[in-house]
Protein backbone atom coordinates (compact mmCIF):
# COMPACT_ATOMS: atom_id res chain seq x y z
CA UNK A 1 0.00 0.00 0.00
CA UNK A 2 1.43 3.38 -0.92
CA UNK A 3 2.11 5.87 1.80
CA UNK A 4 -0.83 8.20 2.02
CA UNK A 5 -0.64 11.41 3.97
CA UNK A 6 -3.78 13.04 5.21
CA UNK A 7 -3.75 16.60 6.44
CA UNK A 8 -4.72 17.02 10.09
CA UNK A 9 -6.98 19.87 9.06
CA UNK A 10 -9.01 17.72 6.63
CA UNK A 11 -12.63 17.08 7.53
CA UNK A 12 -13.69 13.51 6.68
CA UNK A 13 -17.35 12.89 5.99
CA UNK A 14 -19.29 9.92 4.69
CA UNK A 15 -19.48 10.20 0.91
CA UNK A 16 -22.83 10.74 -0.75
CA UNK A 17 -25.01 7.67 -0.76
CA UNK A 18 -23.03 5.82 1.90
CA UNK A 19 -24.95 4.76 4.95
CA UNK A 20 -23.57 3.93 8.41
CA UNK A 21 -26.00 1.79 10.33
CA UNK A 22 -26.30 -0.84 13.01
CA UNK A 23 -26.69 -4.41 11.81
CA UNK A 24 -29.63 -5.68 13.84
CA UNK A 25 -28.40 -9.26 13.47
CA UNK A 26 -25.06 -8.61 15.19
CA UNK A 27 -25.34 -5.22 16.90
CA UNK A 28 -22.20 -4.11 15.02
CA UNK A 29 -21.86 -1.14 12.70
CA UNK A 30 -21.82 -1.61 8.96
CA UNK A 31 -21.20 0.71 6.03
CA UNK A 32 -23.71 0.24 3.25
CA UNK A 33 -22.96 1.34 -0.32
CA UNK A 34 -23.94 0.27 -3.84
CA UNK A 35 -23.50 -3.52 -4.05
CA UNK A 36 -21.38 -3.49 -0.94
CA UNK A 37 -21.46 -4.01 2.79
CA UNK A 38 -18.44 -3.35 4.99
CA UNK A 39 -18.54 -4.77 8.50
CA UNK A 40 -16.60 -2.33 10.64
CA UNK A 41 -14.15 -3.17 13.36
CA UNK A 42 -14.37 -1.18 16.57
CA UNK A 43 -11.72 1.38 15.60
CA UNK A 44 -13.27 2.07 12.21
CA UNK A 45 -16.67 2.39 13.83
CA UNK A 46 -15.32 4.82 16.45
CA UNK A 47 -13.66 6.90 13.73
CA UNK A 48 -16.69 7.01 11.47
CA UNK A 49 -19.21 8.08 14.09
CA UNK A 50 -16.91 11.08 14.67
CA UNK A 51 -16.80 12.07 11.00
CA UNK A 52 -19.33 14.81 11.66
CA UNK A 53 -17.42 17.90 10.62
CA UNK A 54 -14.52 17.44 12.99
CA UNK A 55 -10.99 17.56 11.61
CA UNK A 56 -8.69 14.55 11.51
CA UNK A 57 -6.64 16.06 14.36
CA UNK A 58 -9.75 16.50 16.49
CA UNK A 59 -10.88 12.94 15.81
CA UNK A 60 -7.47 11.57 16.79
CA UNK A 61 -7.47 13.63 19.99
CA UNK A 62 -10.97 12.50 20.93
CA UNK A 63 -10.08 8.85 20.36
CA UNK A 64 -6.76 9.12 22.20
CA UNK A 65 -8.63 10.44 25.22
CA UNK A 66 -11.27 7.76 24.96
CA UNK A 67 -8.77 4.89 24.61
CA UNK A 68 -6.27 6.58 26.97
CA UNK A 69 -3.38 6.14 24.52
CA UNK A 70 -0.80 8.40 22.96
CA UNK A 71 -2.29 10.37 20.06
CA UNK A 72 0.90 10.02 18.00
CA UNK A 73 0.61 6.24 18.01
CA UNK A 74 -3.08 6.32 17.27
CA UNK A 75 -2.67 8.88 14.50
CA UNK A 76 -1.15 6.45 12.01
CA UNK A 77 -3.96 3.94 12.48
CA UNK A 78 -6.64 6.57 12.06
CA UNK A 79 -5.01 8.01 8.94
CA UNK A 80 -4.59 4.58 7.39
CA UNK A 81 -8.22 3.71 8.03
CA UNK A 82 -9.37 7.02 6.57
CA UNK A 83 -7.10 6.64 3.55
CA UNK A 84 -8.51 3.18 2.85
CA UNK A 85 -12.07 4.44 3.09
CA UNK A 86 -11.30 7.43 0.91
CA UNK A 87 -9.68 5.30 -1.80
CA UNK A 88 -12.89 3.31 -1.99
CA UNK A 89 -14.91 6.50 -2.21
CA UNK A 90 -16.71 5.75 1.06
CA UNK A 91 -15.65 9.02 2.67
CA UNK A 92 -14.77 12.44 1.29
CA UNK A 93 -12.03 14.61 2.73
CA UNK A 94 -12.77 18.31 2.50
CA UNK B 1 -24.39 -27.18 7.41
CA UNK B 2 -26.41 -24.54 9.21
CA UNK B 3 -27.40 -21.43 7.32
CA UNK B 4 -25.89 -18.09 8.26
CA UNK B 5 -27.97 -15.04 7.50
CA UNK B 6 -28.25 -13.45 4.05
CA UNK B 7 -26.93 -9.92 3.49
CA UNK B 8 -28.43 -8.93 0.17
CA UNK B 9 -31.60 -9.57 -1.78
CA UNK B 10 -31.72 -9.20 -5.55
CA UNK B 11 -35.32 -8.37 -6.38
CA UNK B 12 -35.87 -9.13 -10.06
CA UNK B 13 -39.24 -7.45 -10.22
CA UNK B 14 -39.88 -7.93 -13.92
CA UNK B 15 -38.12 -9.67 -16.79
CA UNK B 16 -39.68 -7.19 -19.21
CA UNK B 17 -37.16 -4.73 -20.67
CA UNK B 18 -37.08 -2.16 -23.49
CA UNK B 19 -33.53 -3.26 -24.37
CA UNK B 20 -32.51 -6.48 -26.10
CA UNK B 21 -28.86 -6.86 -25.11
CA UNK B 22 -27.45 -10.15 -26.41
CA UNK B 23 -25.43 -10.61 -23.18
CA UNK B 24 -28.42 -10.52 -20.85
CA UNK B 25 -28.14 -13.09 -18.06
CA UNK B 26 -31.91 -13.52 -17.83
CA UNK B 27 -33.31 -16.94 -18.69
CA UNK B 28 -33.82 -17.50 -22.40
CA UNK B 29 -37.12 -19.15 -21.63
CA UNK B 30 -39.61 -18.09 -18.98
CA UNK B 31 -43.05 -19.17 -17.93
CA UNK B 32 -46.17 -17.11 -18.42
CA UNK B 33 -46.90 -17.02 -14.68
CA UNK B 34 -48.09 -13.75 -13.18
CA UNK B 35 -45.57 -11.32 -11.72
CA UNK B 36 -45.72 -10.80 -7.95
CA UNK B 37 -48.08 -8.05 -6.81
CA UNK B 38 -47.07 -4.97 -4.81
CA UNK B 39 -48.46 -6.59 -1.68
CA UNK B 40 -46.50 -9.79 -2.28
CA UNK B 41 -43.26 -7.90 -2.83
CA UNK B 42 -43.82 -5.85 0.30
CA UNK B 43 -44.15 -9.04 2.30
CA UNK B 44 -40.99 -10.46 0.72
CA UNK B 45 -39.08 -7.27 1.60
CA UNK B 46 -40.18 -7.44 5.25
CA UNK B 47 -39.35 -11.13 5.49
CA UNK B 48 -35.93 -10.50 3.96
CA UNK B 49 -35.14 -7.74 6.47
CA UNK B 50 -36.23 -9.98 9.35
CA UNK B 51 -33.87 -12.66 8.02
CA UNK B 52 -30.91 -10.25 8.24
CA UNK B 53 -30.81 -8.75 4.75
CA UNK B 54 -29.26 -5.25 4.77
CA UNK B 55 -29.36 -4.37 1.12
CA UNK B 56 -31.82 -4.75 -1.74
CA UNK B 57 -31.13 -4.38 -5.46
CA UNK B 58 -34.11 -3.78 -7.71
CA UNK B 59 -33.32 -5.36 -11.01
CA UNK B 60 -34.92 -7.31 -13.83
CA UNK B 61 -35.34 -6.99 -16.79
CA UNK B 62 -35.99 -3.33 -16.36
CA UNK B 63 -37.39 -2.54 -12.89
CA UNK B 64 -38.81 0.81 -14.07
CA UNK B 65 -41.48 -1.05 -16.06
CA UNK B 66 -43.20 -1.58 -12.70
CA UNK B 67 -45.21 1.51 -11.80
CA UNK B 68 -45.13 0.49 -8.13
CA UNK B 69 -41.34 0.74 -7.88
CA UNK B 70 -41.43 3.80 -5.56
CA UNK B 71 -43.77 1.87 -3.23
CA UNK B 72 -41.31 -1.01 -3.12
CA UNK B 73 -38.42 1.37 -2.44
CA UNK B 74 -40.41 2.97 0.38
CA UNK B 75 -41.23 -0.41 1.89
CA UNK B 76 -37.53 -1.30 1.75
CA UNK B 77 -36.47 1.91 3.48
CA UNK B 78 -39.09 1.33 6.15
CA UNK B 79 -37.45 -2.06 6.71
CA UNK B 80 -34.09 -0.23 7.04
CA UNK B 81 -32.64 -1.68 3.82
CA UNK B 82 -30.12 0.06 1.60
CA UNK B 83 -31.83 0.44 -1.77
CA UNK B 84 -30.17 0.17 -5.19
CA UNK B 85 -31.89 0.59 -8.51
CA UNK B 86 -30.18 -1.36 -11.29
CA UNK B 87 -31.58 0.09 -14.48
CA UNK B 88 -31.17 0.91 -18.15
CA UNK B 89 -32.48 4.38 -17.32
CA UNK B 90 -35.21 4.05 -19.94
CA UNK B 91 -38.40 5.42 -18.44
CA UNK B 92 -36.69 7.60 -15.87
CA UNK B 93 -38.47 10.91 -16.42
CA UNK B 94 -38.50 13.85 -13.99
CA UNK B 95 -41.59 12.66 -12.12
CA UNK B 96 -40.36 9.13 -11.59
CA UNK B 97 -36.93 10.30 -10.51
CA UNK B 98 -38.52 12.60 -7.95
CA UNK B 99 -40.86 9.84 -6.75
CA UNK B 100 -37.95 7.46 -6.28
CA UNK B 101 -35.88 10.08 -4.48
CA UNK B 102 -38.80 10.91 -2.19
CA UNK B 103 -39.28 7.21 -1.47
CA UNK B 104 -35.68 7.17 -0.19
CA UNK B 105 -33.76 5.50 -3.02
CA UNK B 106 -30.10 5.32 -1.95
CA UNK B 107 -28.36 4.76 -5.26
CA UNK B 108 -28.78 4.17 -8.99
CA UNK B 109 -26.67 1.84 -11.11
CA UNK B 110 -27.17 2.70 -14.72
CA UNK B 111 -26.06 0.38 -17.50
CA UNK B 112 -24.26 1.66 -20.59
CA UNK B 113 -23.50 -0.51 -23.61
CA UNK B 114 -20.67 1.71 -24.89
CA UNK B 115 -19.55 5.33 -24.90
CA UNK B 116 -20.22 5.45 -28.63
CA UNK B 117 -23.91 6.11 -29.39
CA UNK B 118 -24.14 4.05 -32.57
CA UNK B 119 -22.35 1.04 -31.11
CA UNK B 120 -24.32 1.34 -27.87
CA UNK B 121 -27.64 1.36 -29.70
CA UNK B 122 -26.58 -1.54 -31.89
CA UNK B 123 -25.69 -3.63 -28.82
CA UNK B 124 -28.88 -2.68 -26.97
CA UNK B 125 -31.02 -3.39 -30.02
CA UNK B 126 -32.81 -0.12 -29.28
CA UNK B 127 -32.33 3.64 -29.51
CA UNK B 128 -31.30 3.99 -25.92
CA UNK B 129 -27.96 5.75 -25.51
CA UNK B 130 -29.16 9.35 -25.59
CA UNK B 131 -32.02 8.51 -23.22
CA UNK B 132 -29.47 7.04 -20.81
CA UNK B 133 -27.44 10.24 -20.93
CA UNK B 134 -30.64 12.19 -20.22
CA UNK B 135 -31.36 9.86 -17.30
CA UNK B 136 -27.96 10.50 -15.74
CA UNK B 137 -28.71 14.23 -15.70
CA UNK B 138 -31.98 13.61 -13.88
CA UNK B 139 -30.31 11.34 -11.33
CA UNK B 140 -27.62 13.97 -10.75
CA UNK B 141 -30.20 16.74 -10.38
CA UNK B 142 -32.08 14.65 -7.81
CA UNK B 143 -28.86 14.26 -5.81
CA UNK B 144 -28.87 10.46 -6.02
CA UNK B 145 -25.45 8.79 -6.21
CA UNK B 146 -24.71 7.30 -9.61
CA UNK B 147 -22.84 4.16 -10.58
CA UNK B 148 -22.26 3.22 -14.20
CA UNK B 149 -22.23 -0.43 -15.21
CA UNK B 150 -20.55 -1.46 -18.43
CA UNK B 151 -20.75 -5.05 -19.58
CA UNK B 152 -17.56 -5.71 -21.54
CA UNK B 153 -17.34 -8.08 -24.48
CA UNK B 154 -15.51 -8.48 -27.77
CA UNK B 155 -17.41 -5.71 -29.56
CA UNK B 156 -16.82 -2.96 -26.98
CA UNK B 157 -13.77 -3.99 -24.93
CA UNK B 158 -11.36 -1.92 -27.06
CA UNK B 159 -13.24 1.22 -26.02
CA UNK B 160 -12.52 0.81 -22.31
CA UNK B 161 -10.55 4.10 -22.09
CA UNK B 162 -13.43 6.02 -23.69
CA UNK B 163 -15.97 4.34 -21.41
CA UNK B 164 -13.95 5.38 -18.37
CA UNK B 165 -13.80 8.92 -19.80
CA UNK B 166 -17.58 8.91 -20.12
CA UNK B 167 -17.88 7.93 -16.46
CA UNK B 168 -15.53 10.77 -15.52
CA UNK B 169 -17.45 13.31 -17.56
CA UNK B 170 -20.74 12.18 -16.00
CA UNK B 171 -19.15 12.44 -12.54
CA UNK B 172 -20.19 8.95 -11.56
CA UNK B 173 -19.19 7.84 -8.07
CA UNK B 174 -18.63 4.23 -9.14
CA UNK B 175 -17.97 2.32 -12.31
CA UNK B 176 -18.35 -1.37 -12.81
CA UNK B 177 -16.41 -2.73 -15.79
CA UNK B 178 -17.75 -6.24 -15.93
CA UNK B 179 -16.50 -8.71 -18.46
CA UNK B 180 -19.49 -10.65 -19.70
CA UNK B 181 -20.17 -13.86 -17.80
CA UNK B 182 -21.69 -16.61 -19.89
CA UNK B 183 -25.20 -17.41 -18.68
CA UNK B 184 -28.63 -16.97 -20.22
CA UNK B 185 -28.52 -15.04 -23.50
CA UNK B 186 -24.78 -14.49 -23.11
CA UNK B 187 -24.18 -18.25 -23.11
CA UNK B 188 -26.24 -18.53 -26.27
CA UNK B 189 -24.21 -15.72 -27.86
CA UNK B 190 -20.82 -16.68 -26.49
CA UNK B 191 -19.12 -17.06 -29.87
CA UNK B 192 -19.95 -13.47 -30.74
CA UNK B 193 -19.15 -12.01 -27.31
CA UNK B 194 -16.02 -13.69 -25.99
CA UNK B 195 -13.04 -11.30 -26.22
CA UNK B 196 -9.67 -12.43 -27.53
CA UNK B 197 -6.74 -13.03 -25.20
CA UNK B 198 -5.00 -9.97 -26.58
CA UNK B 199 -8.03 -7.80 -25.82
CA UNK B 200 -8.30 -9.18 -22.31
CA UNK B 201 -4.65 -8.50 -21.46
CA UNK B 202 -4.93 -4.91 -22.66
CA UNK B 203 -8.23 -4.31 -20.88
CA UNK B 204 -6.79 -5.49 -17.58
CA UNK B 205 -3.90 -3.04 -17.90
CA UNK B 206 -6.25 -0.17 -18.70
CA UNK B 207 -8.62 -0.99 -15.85
CA UNK B 208 -5.77 -1.36 -13.34
CA UNK B 209 -4.21 1.95 -14.37
CA UNK B 210 -7.57 3.76 -14.25
CA UNK B 211 -8.32 2.35 -10.82
CA UNK B 212 -5.07 3.82 -9.49
CA UNK B 213 -5.44 7.12 -11.30
CA UNK B 214 -9.02 7.68 -10.16
CA UNK B 215 -8.71 6.37 -6.58
CA UNK B 216 -10.74 8.59 -4.28
CA UNK B 217 -12.60 10.09 -7.23
CA UNK B 218 -14.30 7.14 -8.90
CA UNK B 219 -14.35 3.68 -7.38
CA UNK B 220 -13.64 1.30 -10.27
CA UNK B 221 -14.65 -2.31 -9.96
CA UNK B 222 -13.29 -4.63 -12.62
CA UNK B 223 -14.93 -8.02 -13.09
CA UNK B 224 -12.50 -10.54 -14.57
CA UNK B 225 -13.26 -12.56 -17.72
CA UNK B 226 -13.28 -15.90 -15.93
CA UNK B 227 -12.66 -18.15 -18.95
CA UNK B 228 -9.17 -16.60 -19.11
CA UNK B 229 -8.46 -17.21 -15.43
CA UNK B 230 -6.83 -20.34 -14.03
CA UNK B 231 -8.86 -20.46 -10.82
CA UNK B 232 -12.61 -19.98 -10.56
CA UNK B 233 -14.41 -16.95 -9.16
CA UNK B 234 -15.69 -17.31 -5.57
CA UNK B 235 -19.23 -17.35 -6.87
CA UNK B 236 -21.80 -15.76 -4.50
CA UNK B 237 -19.18 -16.01 -1.70
CA UNK B 238 -20.54 -19.54 -1.40
CA UNK B 239 -23.94 -20.97 -2.29
CA UNK B 240 -26.66 -19.95 0.14
CA UNK B 241 -24.23 -17.92 2.28
CA UNK B 242 -24.83 -14.21 1.64
CA UNK B 243 -27.24 -13.70 -1.25
CA UNK B 244 -30.69 -14.58 -2.40
CA UNK B 245 -32.67 -13.66 -5.47
CA UNK B 246 -36.42 -13.50 -5.90
CA UNK B 247 -37.47 -13.57 -9.54
CA UNK B 248 -40.54 -11.87 -11.08
CA UNK B 249 -42.87 -14.79 -10.43
CA UNK B 250 -41.68 -15.30 -6.84
CA UNK B 251 -39.24 -18.19 -7.21
CA UNK B 252 -36.44 -17.86 -4.65
CA UNK B 253 -33.04 -18.58 -6.15
CA UNK B 254 -29.62 -18.98 -4.54
CA UNK B 255 -28.26 -17.37 -7.73
CA UNK B 256 -30.12 -15.37 -10.42
CA UNK B 257 -28.99 -17.66 -13.22
CA UNK B 258 -29.66 -20.95 -11.41
CA UNK B 259 -33.21 -21.39 -12.67
CA UNK B 260 -32.11 -21.74 -16.27
CA UNK B 261 -28.62 -23.20 -15.78
CA UNK B 262 -29.46 -26.01 -13.35
CA UNK B 263 -32.56 -27.74 -14.68
CA UNK B 264 -32.76 -30.46 -12.03
CA UNK B 265 -32.98 -28.01 -9.14
CA UNK B 266 -36.52 -27.25 -7.96
CA UNK B 267 -37.09 -23.81 -6.49
CA UNK B 268 -39.50 -22.74 -3.79
CA UNK B 269 -41.89 -19.87 -4.30
CA UNK B 270 -42.76 -17.03 -1.91
CA UNK B 271 -46.44 -17.60 -2.67
CA UNK B 272 -46.21 -20.99 -0.98
CA UNK B 273 -43.48 -20.60 1.64
CA UNK B 274 -41.97 -18.04 3.96
CA UNK B 275 -38.57 -16.72 3.01
CA UNK B 276 -37.03 -17.81 6.31
CA UNK B 277 -37.97 -21.46 5.68
CA UNK B 278 -36.75 -21.31 2.08
CA UNK B 279 -33.39 -19.85 3.13
CA UNK B 280 -32.78 -22.32 5.94
CA UNK B 281 -34.54 -25.52 4.97
CA UNK B 282 -35.09 -25.76 1.23
CA UNK B 283 -33.30 -28.34 -0.85
CA UNK B 284 -32.28 -25.72 -3.41
CA UNK B 285 -30.44 -23.57 -0.84
CA UNK B 286 -28.88 -26.54 0.95
CA UNK B 287 -27.74 -28.57 -2.04
CA UNK B 288 -24.38 -26.76 -2.42
CA UNK B 289 -23.99 -25.17 1.00
CA UNK B 290 -20.67 -25.63 2.75
CA UNK B 291 -18.12 -28.13 1.45
CA UNK B 292 -19.69 -31.57 2.09
CA UNK B 293 -21.25 -31.81 -1.36
CA UNK B 294 -17.93 -31.20 -3.14
CA UNK B 295 -16.38 -33.86 -5.34
CA UNK B 296 -12.64 -34.04 -5.90
CA UNK B 297 -10.51 -32.11 -6.71
CA UNK B 298 -12.47 -29.54 -4.62
CA UNK B 299 -13.14 -31.69 -1.58
CA UNK B 300 -9.52 -31.88 -0.44
CA UNK B 301 -8.43 -28.57 -2.00
CA UNK B 302 -6.93 -25.95 0.33
CA UNK B 303 -8.82 -23.32 -1.71
CA UNK B 304 -12.24 -24.87 -1.09
CA UNK B 305 -13.35 -22.21 1.39
CA UNK B 306 -11.83 -19.43 -0.72
CA UNK B 307 -13.38 -20.07 -4.14
CA UNK B 308 -16.09 -22.56 -3.03
CA UNK B 309 -15.42 -24.66 -6.13
CA UNK B 310 -16.43 -21.75 -8.37
CA UNK B 311 -19.78 -21.37 -10.04
CA UNK B 312 -22.46 -24.09 -9.93
CA UNK B 313 -24.24 -22.68 -12.97
CA UNK B 314 -21.05 -22.69 -15.02
CA UNK B 315 -20.34 -26.29 -13.98
CA UNK B 316 -23.85 -27.26 -15.07
CA UNK B 317 -23.70 -25.39 -18.39
CA UNK B 318 -20.23 -26.62 -19.40
CA UNK B 319 -20.07 -30.12 -17.90
CA UNK B 320 -23.71 -31.11 -17.49
CA UNK B 321 -23.37 -31.55 -13.73
CA UNK B 322 -23.77 -28.62 -11.33
CA UNK B 323 -21.79 -30.42 -8.60
CA UNK B 324 -18.62 -30.60 -10.67
CA UNK B 325 -15.67 -28.30 -10.11
CA UNK B 326 -16.11 -25.12 -12.13
CA UNK B 327 -14.25 -26.05 -15.35
CA UNK B 328 -12.49 -22.67 -15.32
CA UNK B 329 -10.29 -24.18 -12.59
CA UNK B 330 -6.99 -25.50 -13.94
CA UNK B 331 -7.38 -28.48 -11.57
CA UNK B 332 -10.77 -29.43 -13.02
CA UNK B 333 -10.76 -32.60 -15.15
CA UNK B 334 -13.04 -30.62 -17.49
CA UNK B 335 -10.76 -27.61 -18.05
CA UNK B 336 -10.32 -28.79 -21.64
CA UNK B 337 -13.90 -27.66 -22.34
CA UNK B 338 -12.94 -24.05 -21.62
CA UNK B 339 -9.58 -24.37 -23.37
CA UNK B 340 -11.28 -25.60 -26.52
CA UNK B 341 -13.50 -22.50 -26.59
CA UNK B 342 -10.49 -20.22 -26.12
CA UNK B 343 -8.47 -22.10 -28.73
CA UNK B 344 -11.22 -21.78 -31.33
CA UNK B 345 -11.21 -18.02 -30.83
CA UNK B 346 -7.51 -17.32 -30.37
CA UNK B 347 -5.99 -19.52 -33.07
CA UNK B 348 -4.54 -17.86 -36.18
CA UNK B 349 -7.68 -18.83 -38.08
CA UNK B 350 -10.45 -18.26 -35.54
CA UNK B 351 -13.41 -20.60 -35.88
CA UNK B 352 -15.50 -18.98 -33.19
CA UNK B 353 -15.52 -15.44 -34.56
CA UNK B 354 -19.18 -15.42 -35.52
CA UNK B 355 -20.33 -11.81 -36.04
CA UNK B 356 -24.00 -12.51 -35.45
CA UNK B 357 -25.75 -12.63 -32.14
CA UNK B 358 -29.31 -13.29 -31.15
CA UNK B 359 -30.98 -10.36 -29.47
CA UNK B 360 -32.81 -10.99 -26.23
CA UNK B 361 -36.56 -11.13 -26.64
CA UNK B 362 -39.02 -10.26 -23.94
CA UNK B 363 -40.50 -13.05 -21.83
CA UNK B 364 -44.09 -14.15 -21.73
CA UNK B 365 -44.35 -13.38 -18.02
CA UNK B 366 -47.65 -11.63 -17.55
CA UNK B 367 -47.38 -8.15 -16.01
CA UNK B 368 -49.54 -7.27 -13.05
CA UNK B 369 -51.84 -4.33 -13.49
CA UNK B 370 -50.94 -1.59 -11.09
CA UNK B 371 -53.06 1.55 -10.87
CA UNK B 372 -51.14 4.68 -11.81
CA UNK B 373 -49.77 6.45 -8.78
Q: What do you see in this structure?
A:
The complex is a heterodimer of chains A (94) and B (373). Chain A is of the alpha+beta class and 94 residues long. Chain A has 3 helices and 5 strands, in the order ββββαααβ. Chain A has helices spanning 42-48, 56-67, 71-87, and strands at residues 12-14, 19-22, 29-33, 36-39, 91-93. A 3-stranded antiparallel β-sheet of chain A has the order 2-3-4, with helices on one face. Chain A has a two-stranded antiparallel sheet with strand order 1-5. Chain B is an alpha/beta fold. Chain B contains 15 helices and 9 strands. Chain B has helices spanning 38-51, 69-78, 94-103, 117-124, 129-141, 160-169, 184-188, 190-193, 197-213, 258-261, 275-281, 283-286, 304-307, 312-319, 335-346; strands at 8-14, 55-60, 82-87, 107-112, 146-152, 174-179, 219-223, 243-246, 252-253. The N and C termini of chain B lie far apart (45 Å). Chain A binds chain B through residues 15-17, 19, 21, 23-25, 30, 32-35, 37, 86-89, and chain B through 5, 7-8, 52, 54-55, 57, 80, 82, 84, 106-107, 109, 143-145, 147, 173-174, 176, 215-219.
